[in-house]
Design goal:
By secondary structure, the chain is mostly beta strands. The chain has a single domain, classed as Beta Barrel (Porin), CATH 2.40.160. Helix content is about 5%, strand content about 55%. It has a 16-stranded antiparallel β-barrel. A hairpin with a 2-residue loop joins strand 5 and strand 6. The longest helix has 16 residues. It is globular. About 40% of the residues are buried.
Length: about 375
């Protein structure tokens, strides 16, 4: 990280942390127009100890910064017309217009069109994600996170290994391609009788292997006193790109899960993903093993403190020309302290054991630990 980067991040943190405690949003209204701003700066230091070294090590410190803006105009008695923009900066993309969309929202739900994530879906970044059932609430609430498939825990592993862990790490957490950010149409229904549905379609997914991408989800929430039970799932269907269609099967991914919140303090989550042998190359004599995974999580809040963790196991076909499957067994534990509503300090330990194509040789087996410590500041 350069000196200029360090100074810029320090100024952001000082500015955000020095402000009076408030929510993570800044709202401005003028007549029928309303503007909502959200911003965060996640500064995370980490280090990994792995048995296998794949090229250069990752940076010891990374910064992830974003500003989200949602402008809404009230159209008489009709729905709100909105414009949503997300600008992000990370070690991978120093300054990027990550999402941009227009939307209509009202009593019949929300329609959105533009470059953005589909399902799981959140509008501006900090609302509970209704289509995700496991998480790590002690970590950053947006940006690369410590959630299963959140990416932050793998960011400090050697890059080649991190890429493999990210690929298989989504199994058990979401339906495949849940994090896709491409031009798409999104509809999220209003919540009725505890049910909430969502749908998105993209003609051209970000993943270079696939073109048309359809995602859908349905959940139901039930309340009793301060206890909440949420059950449901999401599905993904993706078509191979035309150049690859003869050699790759359509992707069909299903995720089911449940979240139980007790007394607003204890959150238990269970999630499972099943892709079967879909979405992989179809080569003569190639291996066509099923892909699946399961994740269980626990989080506990007490005052300014949050502690929790998760365990995950996943299996998938890697190289169809090689015998054996990729397998991941992982566990994470962490804790955070909220100094104010704008400033949080977090730390976590992540352990993984990864077998590449069945781990037939020593070089195909990787295990290790990642320790992380970070600070999150918000507007």
């Amino acid at each position: 990280m350069t000196r200029i980067d360090s100074i810029s991040i320090l100024l952001v943190l000082v500015t955000l942390a020095g402000a009076a405690p408030a929510t993570a949003q800044v709202n401005t209204e003028s007549g029928p127009f309303r503007l909502t701003l959200e911003g965060y700066a996640n500064i995370t230091a980490g280090g990994s100890d792995t048995e296998r070294v794949d090229g250069p090590s990752a940076d010891a410190v990374r910064e992830d910064v974003a500003l989200r803006a949602l402008g809404r105009l009230k159209l008489g008695d009709g729905p709100d017309l909105g414009l949503r923009l997300v600008i992000e900066s990370s070690p991978e993309d120093r300054l990027d217009l990550a999402e941009a969309s227009i939307l209509l929202s009202g009593s019949n739900g929300r329609l959105e069109l533009g470059q953005r994530q589909g399902l799981p879906d959140v509008l501006t970044g900090y609302a509970p994600n209704n289509f995700a059932f496991t998480g790590a609430e002690f970590g950053p609430a947006s940006g690369p996170s410590l959630d299963p498939a959140g990416g932050l825990q793998h960011a400090f592993a050697p890059p080649a290994l991190a890429s493999q862990l990210n690929e298989i790490g989504s199994l058990g957490a979401f339906a495949s391609l849940a994090g896709d950010r491409s031009a798409k149409f999104v509809y999220v229904s209003p919540k009725r009788a505890g049910f909430l549905g969502g749908f998105s379609y993209s003609p051209d997914a970000d993943d270079p292997r696939f073109g048309g991408l359809t995602q859908a989800g349905l959940v139901r929430e039930r309340y009793r006193d301060s206890n909440i039970l949420r059950i449901g799932g999401s599905v993904t269907y993706a078509q191979p790109r035309r150049l690859n269609s003869a050699a790759r099967a359509d992707l069909r991914s299903l995720n089911l899960g449940a979240t139980l919140i007790l007394d607003d303090d204890l959150m238990l989550g269970l999630s499972a993903t099943w892709d079967g042998a879909s979405g992989i190359e179809r080569l003569p004599g190639g291996a066509h093993s099923d892909a699946y995974g399961v994740t269980a999580s626990i989080n506990y809040n007490r005052g300014h403190w949050t502690a929790g963790g998760y365990v995950q196991w996943a299996n998938a076909e890697g190289d169809v020309q090689a015998v054996g499957n990729d397998q991941l067994a992982a566990a994470e534990a962490g804790i955070s302290y909220r100094a104010t509503q704008k400033l949080r300090v977090y730390g976590a330990w992540y352990h993984f054991a990864f077998e590449n194509e069945g781990g037939n040789t020593h070089s195909d087996r990787s295990s290790g630990d990642v320790l992380l410590f970070g600070v999150r500041a918000t507007l």
